Amino acid sequence: MNLVLLGAPGAGKGTQAEKISERYGLVHISTGDIFRENIKKETEIGLLAKSYIDRGELVPDEVTCAIVKDRLRWKDCKNGFILDGFPRNLFQAERLNVFGHIDGVINIEIDPKLLMDRLLGRRVCEKCGANYHISLLGGKTVCEKCGGTLIQRKDDNPETVAARLKVYEAQTAPLTEYYGNKKGILMTFQSTEEPPEALFREIAAALDGKFKK
Ligand code: AP5
Ligand code: MG
Questions:
Q1: CB-ligand 1 contact for 35 (6 Å cutoff)
Q2: Mapping DSSP to helix (H, G, I), strand (E, B) and coil, where does residue 193 land?
Q3: How confident is the model at residue 183, as a pLDDT?
Q4: Is the pLDDT of residue 213 over 70?
Q5: Which ligand number lies closest to the CA of residue 155?
Q6: Which residue is closest in CA terms to ligand 1's atom 48?
Q7: Which domains does the chain have, with CATH numbers?
Q8: H-helix or E-strand containing 131?
Q9: Whole-number percent of the chain with pLDDT over 70
């Protein structure tokens, strides 16, 4: 099963992708995580990506598509993958049609009023990248998976978030229509103030119904 996850910044793509990947044994491929890893290691890709990410803009398509195309060739993708944050515009979606096969697209919709709080309240583990929200942390300041320090992502500030939301509306939101026109692959869900597990139950029920053997 090869899946794509669509949704605005802060909709909960990473949170749900982690749960979906664990339950169905899919490789979780987040282009945002790949760029952040490269920034940390100060690679050439990292240096290039940083300037775009800090401004809330998309990293150039050629760079992003080459990374995903290469990653999908790895052996571990044979049993299925979930793409989180790719494709992000029509050009990337068309390229993905050429180098990858997609069985389903999960679109997470969310009331824009919830997004700022989700993003400004997000904390990530400096060491392993695990994702938390302060409202669910109960005052904890270290990662429950590896003990690493929890920090804020550099692009989770009001100015960059506003830029990311604009880019999403202009370039990524049209992908719901694009995939909606491809028969039967788009599944749309609402992210609410319920905890992440509630949304995951809905997604899992839809995937079980659609892809049961
Ligand atoms: P990326 O890392 O993909 O960021 P994003 O799309 O802006 O999405 P986020 O990761 O911010 O949000 P999310 O939907 O994953 O939400 P999360 O689960 O964390 O991309 C970053 C940058 O990289 C881009 O701006 C761009 O520059 C570049 N880039 C990446 N892909 C690219 C591409 N294809 N092409 C070009 N450039 C690219 O949840 C958010 C918070 O809410 C967390 O704190 C979480 O714990 C919390 N939360 C989630 N669900 C709930 C809930 N139900 N209740 C309460 N809290 C919740
Ligand atoms: Mg994410």
A1: yes
A2: coil
A3: 86
A4: no
A5: 1
A6: 12
A7: 2-111+172-211 (3.40.50.300)
A8: strand 131-133
A9: 100
